[in-house]
Write a structure and sequence with these properties.
With 905 residues, the chain is mainly alpha-helical. 65% of the residues lie in helices and 4% in strands.
Length: 905
């Protein structure tokens, strides 16, 4: 398509050659750049015209186009735009599950992704969303979810957004290409003005050009005013353009009959566009009652349109705001009251009752509170927060007001709205809250300011939970302690406080196998109640009915108490169930705990792939508290692989973040990743020093439970750098805990470490005895013992060494622990055996490519893999296109054979 004077879109797109060229380039080569483009600029700058031009270009190129215009009236209706878009794409709205708002939110996003992928299976699909700043929040999140996954699909998403705080906030979380629409050049602006208002006197012509400042809407409307009423209709150029436009529209409204103005005010305040509601409410503002004919002057003035379905729409949002500003407070109050009586929907009616209320009204406040709860359950956290705030404004009860604002704060935190959270924290009077809610407020404050309070505030949580228990609210008491269970785990509590927490948990009148109770008990007292928790975990694993969220929580506590076999199963089942249910929030938890479990078991492959997905989902679902721990577990996985540079970069970034917010206990994960990286690299003294800090109470990075998982690493380092005695002292410190049966992880590490520390003269017998134990759940430790035994045997009996070295090499290779696998292969060659190395090419795969390859090896189709990873089938095909040449295979069968041969599935 070329621009020519005969082209029908030229008159309304004068001076937009560069913007049109960008759109044409995107449509001509959608895979050559970004799949999402935001067209942005000020009100009236021509964004909608550019989207219409894109649609015309797409039609000429045979590209299918689906267009949606967001409506300001639906800004408060959760999922309204997403449902409309899904219907336009021919998809099916998923049923609302029992799992809550997050689950439905992501199921709807997945339905949109699937519908877009299906619609684009035959040819390129162009999705156009105009006025995207008016998308309701859940629909925006769903569309952003889709946009982040379009890179491999023949789908282009173009959104037009008006500049403002809402747009800035939304685009901050969605890194996309932006096409800024600037004011028209002087030549184009002059041509447009001459077309719309020919014959203007030169002084007036010049003033319109100056005040419009290249804005096409301003040129059009100011030209009309100038042509109609001349110089006196013009406004000072010192006013912002939007203000001048609102005043211009206001002047046009002021010329209309009284009945017309009354109807326009009602329409401007109404969330819906139904003419029957507008007429019914308008009767309260003018007499006699208005009729449809009374809108005709507004239609003639190009202020509104009324379609055949009797729906009224303003031609521009500035017209609506101009009408609202022009009406005084008393007229707005009367219009809201009239709308409250005219609207049959109770949810909408109560909003107008609230807007018409001066002072307090406990009944309206209670109705708003109920509405906020429904909105929150439906996924509209932002609108729920605003409604709770409104309910708080309308109550005269100080305690209830504070509690309502606390609910608003919790909902605002879900949106990662920092400014909103800071404002609410300043607004809530903590002294007006009941004691248990003051604890919740303090906990939320800690999250917001990002400061790690450690054990300092745990006594307050304990006291609040005890008060709740005494009042018969045992489940709420458990919720208070569950909120801080992970913080309890990562705090070095004194015995008295920990014992008090345990005693309270055991006094709660709840079934012992309540999943949340098991989780909280295990994270609060991993040693004191570790054996009990392991027993309860086994009982829960045998029973049915655990939800995806419960499975993820139990995976956390299973890892925390060192029951890594149970943890692996719980995390895998939790991830699978949450994938099926589309619950990305709980899936993030399950993957985070799967990562933690995997690296503690030495599984670099699973740790790396699960961490990459968990990190991406944590950011996407705004669970930012998971990001740093998951990154550090990814660093641990990279250390097991021997990627020193990756470990250095990740730990440096995370260390800065942890030091900044005072989360010093989490520095243990930094020490562990660096220590394992040094061990993998053969820097044994450095490895010893890093890992030994985890055992030293005075050192940054000390952690009473993390040391259980690195004792064998410490022993390997110590045995190679002459520090056996120091490591032996660490072993003796932990043996009494191991004897209690509290931590299977600690028992395995003690078993391995003691064998590695035996003097050389006695080492063979000790290592053989250690290998006789059942180490099925601890493949890395078994391979470590085999390698140590093989090294000793190879020195005097090479042929006897080969079997154990071969077994060690295979296990390390299967786990992705390449430095250890390399050592085993080196020893094998020294023993006289020449054996094919594991495929180095597999190590070149990205985490997501490795994940796809392993799922192919499990026999899943592209569509099944796409569903599991929340991607499109075409994206999976693109991954396979890259995987095959990296691995030197040409088919799914060859890929599956290679993966099955090289890795533990």
């Amino acid at each position: 398509m070329t621009i020519s004077e005969s082209d029908p879109i030229v008159p309304r797109l004068r001076g937009r050659e560069s913007e049109l060229a960008s759109l044409r380039k995107l449509l001509a080569d959608p895979q050559g750049g970004d799949a999402v483009l935001v067209v942005r600029g000020g009100a009236g700058i021509g964004k909608s015209s550019l989207l219409r031009a894109a649609a015309e270009e797409a039609a000429d190129l045979g590209i299918e186009t689906v267009s949606l215009t967001a409506v300001q009236a639906e800004f408060r209706l959760p999922f309204a735009a997403a449902h409309t878009l899904l219907d336009l794409l021919g998809g099916t709205v998923p049923p609302r599950p029992d799992g809550g708002r997050e689950q439905y939110h992501f199921q709807l996003a997945l339905a949109l992704l699937a519908a877009a992928a299906a619609r684009s299976s035959r040819r390129l699909l162009l999705l156009l969303v105009d006025d995207a700043q008016w998308l309701d929040a859940p629909s925006w999140e769903a569309l952003a979810f889709v946009g982040r996954r379009l890179s491999a699909d023949p789908v282009v998403l173009v959104m037009a957004m008006r500049d403002g705080p809402e747009t800035e906030s939304r685009l901050a979380g969605l890194p996309v290409a932006e096409l800024w629409v600037e004011p028209l050049p002087d030549e184009a602006a002059t041509a447009l003005l001459d077309e719309r208002a020919p014959g203007l006197a030169p002084p007036l012509h010049a003033r319109v050009l100056a005040e419009a400042a290249g804005n096409p809407l301003a040129l059009t409307e100011l030209a009309a005013v100038a042509a109609r009423i001349g110089e006196k209709g013009m406004l000072p150029a010192t006013l912002p353009l939007t203000a001048r436009m609102e005043r211009t529209f206001g002047a046009a409204v002021a010329e209309l009959p009284a009945a017309t103005r009354a109807l326009l005010l009602v329409a401007a305040l109404n969330e819906a566009d139904r003419l029957d509601e507008i007429l019914a409410a308008g009767g309260a503002l003018s007499a006699p009652g208005p009729a449809v004919e009374d809108l005709e002057p507004a239609v003639a003035a190009r202020l509104v349109d009324v379609d055949d379905a009797f729906q009224l729409r303003f031609r521009h949002p500035l017209i609506r705001s101009a009408i609202r500003q022009q009406a005084g407070p008393s007229r707005r109050q009367r219009a809201h009251a009239a709308l409250a009586r005219a609207i049959s929907d109770p949810d909408r009616a109560v909003r107008h009752r609230a807007a018409a209320t001066v002072g307090t009204d406990e009944r309206v406040s209670a109705d708003l509170e109920d509405l906020a709860g429904r909105l929150h359950r439906r996924g509209a956290s932002g609108e729920a927060a605003r409604t709770w705030e409104q309910a708080a404004r309308l109550t005269g009860d100080r305690g209830r007001r504070a509690s309502l604002l606390l609910r608003a704060l919790e909902a605002t935190l879900e949106l990662a709205d920092r400014q909103g959270v800071e404002r609410l924290l300043r607004t809530i009077a903590a002294d007006d809250l009941p004691a248990e809610d003051r604890v919740v407020l303090q906990w939320l404050s800690d999250i917001e300011v990002g400061v790690w309070s450690g054990a300092a505030r745990l006594p307050g949580h304990l006291a609040a939970a005890e008060r709740l228990r005494r009042s018969g609210r045992d489940e709420r008491a458990l919720e208070v302690l569950d909120r801080v269970a992970v913080r309890t785990y990562f705090s070095d509590l004194d015995d008295d406080l920990r014992n008090e927490i345990v005693a309270l948990l055991e006094r709660l009148d709840l079934p012992p196998l309540t999943p949340r109770l098991v989780t909280t008990l295990g994270l609060s007292a991993p040693v004191q109640r570790g054996a009990v928790v392991v027993e309860r975990l086994n009982a829960l694993l045998e029973g049915p009915g655990l939800t995806g969220t419960e499975l993820a929580g139990l995976a956390a506590v299973a890892t925390g108490v060192g029951a890594l076999g149970a943890a692996a199963r719980l995390a895998a089942e939790g991830a699978a169930r949450n994938r099926r249910e589309g619950n990305l929030v709980s899936l993030t938890w399950a993957l985070a705990h799967q990562t933690w479990c995997a690296v503690q078991r030495g599984d670099a492959f699973l740790g790396r792939t699960a961490a990459a997905e968990a990190e991406a989902l944590a950011i996407e679902t705004r669970q930012l508290n998971f990001v740093v721990p998951v990154m550090l577990n990814r660093a641990h996985a990279e250390a097991l692989r021997g990627d020193r540079e990756a470990v250095r970069a990740i730990t440096a970034q995370c260390e800065r973040a942890l030091l900044a917010n005072g989360a010093h206990p989490l520095l243990c994960l930094v020490r562990i990743a660096r220590g394992v990286a040094a061990l993998a690299d053969g820097r044994h003294a450095e490895a010893h020093d890093e890992l030994d800090a985890v055992f030293t109470p005075s050192a940054a990075g000390y952690h009473p439970y993390a040391r259980f998982s690195v004792l064998a690493h410490l022993a390997e380092a110590g045995a190679h750098c002459g520090r056996r005695d120091r490591v032996a002292a660490r072993v003796r410190q932990l043996e009494p805990i191991g004897a209690t049966g509290a931590s299977p992880l600690l028992r395995a590490n003690l078993h391995c470490a003691k064998a590695l520390l035996v003097p050389d003269a006695e080492a063979e017998g000790a290592l053989r005895a250690a290998l006789d134990a059942d180490l099925t759940e601890w493949p890395f430790e078994r391979a470590r013992l085999q390698l140590a035994l093989g090294i000793r045997l190879r020195r005097g009996r090479p042929s006897a060494a080969r079997a154990v070295l071969r077994a060690a090499a295979e296990t390390f290779g299967a786990l992705g622990a390449r430095p250890w696998a390399d050592r085993a292969h080196t020893e094998l060659r020294a023993s006289g055996e020449t054996r094919r190395r594991s495929a180095d090419e597999i190590d070149r795969l990205t985490p997501q490519e490795l994940q796809v390859a392993r799922l192919v090896a499990e026999g899943l189709t592209n569509r099944e893999i796409a569903s599991r990873l929340f991607l499109s089938p075409r994206t999976i095909s693109t991954h396979l296109y890259r995987i095959y040449p990296k691995l030197g295979v040409g088919s799914r069968t060859e890929l599956a054979t290679l993966i099955a041969r090289e890795y533990v599935m």
